[in-house]
């Protein structure tokens, strides 16, 4: 199902990035580590899971229109 695909993607991304990030884990404060875990699990994996599940009921044209400019409005909101 779609949720299993998202979980597999997140696990592979985490495993592939672990060797790179393992060298700098000591420099991150424990509170910041917990916030990064929260950011990764809830706000990244959760959002991607909901997005993937919503593809069952949302038309593809709407998904394309809203997700295409996502990097642009993401940068604007981050700014």
What is the N-to-C succession of helices and strands? Answer: HHHH
Uncertain regions spanning at least 5 consecutive residues: none
Number of helices: 4
Helix content: over 70%
Distance between the termini: 36 Å
Mean pLDDT across residues: 84
Strand content: under 5%
Estimated radius of gyration? 15 Å
Largest sheet: none
Shape type: globular
| Overall SS class | mainly alpha
- How many beta-strand runs? 0
Give an overview in words.
- This protein is mainly alpha-helical.
- It has four helices and no strands.
- The chain has helices spanning 2-22, 30-54, 60-67, 70-78.
In short:
This protein is mainly alpha-helical and 79 residues long. Helix content is 80%, strand content 0%. The longest helix is centred in the middle third of the chain and has 25 residues, at 30-54.
How is the secondary structure organized here?
Elements: H1 2-22, H2 30-54, H3 60-67, H4 70-78
Helix pairs in contact: 1-2
Q: What brief labels describe this structure?
A:
single chain; 79 residues; mainly alpha; globular
